[in-house]
Design brief:
Blueprint: E1 3-8, H1 14-23, E2 27-32, E3 44-47, H2 65-68, E4 73-76, H3 78-86, E5 90-105, E6 118-131, E7 137-141, E8 149-152, E9 157-160, H4 172-183, H5 192-204, E10 210-214, H6 218-231, E11 235-241, H7 249-259, E12 264-268, H8 270-277, H9 283-305, E13 310-312, H10 317-324, E14 349-351, H11 359-369, H12 373-376, H13 396-415, E15 424-438, E16 441-454, E17 462-463, H14 468-481, E18 485-490
Parallel strand pairs: 1-2, 1-3, 3-4, 4-9, 10-11, 10-13, 11-12, 13-14, 16-18
Antiparallel strand pairs: 5-6, 5-7, 7-8, 8-9, 15-16, 16-17
Helix pairs in contact: 5-6, 5-11, 6-11, 8-9, 13-14
Length: 503
């Protein structure tokens, strides 16, 4: 398949470049900034933005093969400056230009074709091209950057100072399409129907039994269904009920997955998990305990029902990139738990059919495969489950409050037509108590914290400005229907500085 290679120089938008191109059905892949380009390895290369200055010592540069392969190259922001420098121009520190600028199109054919005479373009840089390299012409400029877009047509090398991948740049997708399709000639072959077909044909080519852990969430359900369609009886799915699931989650997952014909077994391990969590109140210790217990249960299952050759996981593209990144280790905010902690002596090979996909692409595959909307629209749920929504020690009483109140939050949002438009919505509970009055009696009960957030990728999040009437409905129902709940509070911290889950 034709592909566009996006070299990552560290911009927070590098992933977005890939996604925009994939949205136009052209396959794009992110690679480390110094990845070499094999002959025939890509139809074109994009150099992303990045935080460095090209004139700084040790500034990251692409592998020489990138400019020698003869394929079209587009530099964006830092990538633009790399192009300027590589071809003999000069980059200098400039007035910082952040936010929207008016881009005047000087040459409306080729890269900037079809976008009109001027567009709003998103800038975020502190350097600019002082001297345009020989052989290049200026095809666009802004008030502050005389060479905001440059081109050397014969060699098909381009540089743009602004970010076409962000939504704030008008007609930015058209510019990327002009490059990927018009200039590189990449074919629009990346469709989710095509993906599902080729994933299934490579899964059919594997031999041996496959074990897949499922949670009822979209990623593991899509992975399981793809494998089921391709491998049939060779697949066994296991759902570990750790006693920390949302209300009705286990039953729903069982009915959906079995309804799709998947061979699913449920292991009820809730007692084991709750026993393991008794007396543990530190958030990281709780996460470790859940992850470790999960690995034990899973391993026992694999041993008893094996032998299996493959372990299937619903790993997505951003996880693959992050774990393979050459960058320094980001500080651990929370230890995320997944099946990655299984012992190597189990000797299972890993099968990750979704490792090339972004979340929204997984949603599209779910539609292609006919997975019910209730699964694909479900909010994300953390691996350690309600253990991170119960603050402090996990006790059956607190779990019950978090579970019932969470259901009420979801029901009220659904009733108000808001469930689908927020990122996550749930209730948390800790050990703080408050006094209430019910009928004529005093009630001493827990304070329940309701958290509803908007986000696009969970990296940042903002609290949702829910209508007061909806908040009121949630609060009334929680205090009326849940005996141990006395007060309801609404969490109004964004991420950062808070995180989405309380623990
Ligand atoms: P935080 O709380 O770090 O969460 O802002 C960001 C997103 O990740 C989810 N989350 C997890 N997901 N395993 C997961 O698979 C985990 O251990 C885990 N912890 C948090 C959280 O629900 C939010 O969507």
């Amino acid at each position: 398949m034709d592909r566009i290679l996006v070299l990552d120089f560290g911009s927070q938008y590098s992933h977005l470049i890939c996604r925009r191109i994939r949205d136009m059905s052209v396959y794009a892949e992110l690679a480390p900034h110094d990845a070499p380009l094999e002959p025939g390895g890509a139809s074109g290369v994009i150099l992303s933005g990045g935080p460095e200055s090209v004139y700084a010592e040790g500034a990251p540069r692409p592998h020489p093969s990138v400019f020698e392969a003869g394929v079209p190259v587009l530099g964006i922001c830092y990538g633009h400056q790399l192009v300027v420098e590589r071809f003999g121009g000069r980059v200098r520190r400039a007035n910082r230009e952040y936010g929207s600028s008016e881009l005047e199109v000087v040459d409306g054919a080729g890269l900037l074709g079809g976008i009109g005479g001027s567009v709003r373009a998103w800038m975020s840089h502190g350097d600019e091209a002082e001297e345009v390299p020989p052989g290049f012409e200026v095809i666009g400029r802004t008030g502050a950057s005389a060479a905001a877009a440059i081109a050397m047509r014969e060699r098909r090398v381009y540089g743009i100072q602004f970010h076409p991948e962000v939504a704030h740049t008008e007609r930015g997708s058209r510019i990327l399409e002009n490059f990927a399709v018009g200039i590189c000639g990449a074919k629009k072959e990346w469709t989710m129907e095509g993906f599902a077909e080729s994933a299934m044909s490579s899964i059919s080519a594997t031999g041996g039994r496959i074990l897949c852990g499922v949670s009822g969430g979209i990623d593991s359900s899509v992975a399981a269904l793809l494998i089921h369609r391709a491998a049939g009886d060779r697949l066994t799915c296991v759902l570990v009920d750790n006693g920390l699931l949302r209300e009705g989650e286990r039953e729903e997952a069982e009915s959906v997955l079995r309804g799709l014909g998947i061979n699913l077994e449920t292991v009820d391990a809730s007692e084991r998990f709750l026993a393991r969590l008794r007396g543990v109140s530190d958030p990281e210790e709780k996460r470790m305990a859940v992850g470790d217990e999960f690995a034990r249960v899973f391993t026992e299952f694999a041993r008893e029902r094996g032998p299996f050759r493959w372990l299937a996981q619903g790993t997505l593209y951003p996880d693959v990139i992050e774990s393979g990144s050459a960058k320094g280790p980001a500080s651990v905010i929370k230890s995320h738990h997944n099946v990655g902690g299984l012992p190597s002596w189990l000797g299972l090979e890993v099968l990750e059919p979704l490792r090339d996909l972004y979340k929204d692409e997984v949603r599209k595959v779910a539609r292609v495969l006919g997975i019910p909307g209730s699964v694909s629209a479900r909010h994300p749920f953390p691996g350690p489950g309600l253990a991170v929504r119960v603050i402090g020690e996990v006790t059956p009483a607190k779990l019950q409050i978090a579970r019932s109140a969470g259901r009420i939050v979801e029901e009220e949002l659904r009733g108000a037509g808001l469930y689908g438009s927020v990122w996550q919505a749930y209730a948390a509970v800790g050990d703080d108590m408050a006094v209430g009055v019910v009928g004529d009696e005093r009630r001493h009960g827990n304070i329940v914290i309701v958290r509803v957030v908007d986000s696009v990728d969970a990296m940042t999040a903002d609290w949702t400005r829910l209508p007061h009437g909806v908040l009121e409905g949630i609060s009334n129902r929680i205090t009326n229907e849940i005996e141990g709940a006395a007060w309801v509070a609404y969490a109004i911290s964004s991420k950062p500085p808070a995180t989405i889950e309380p623990q």
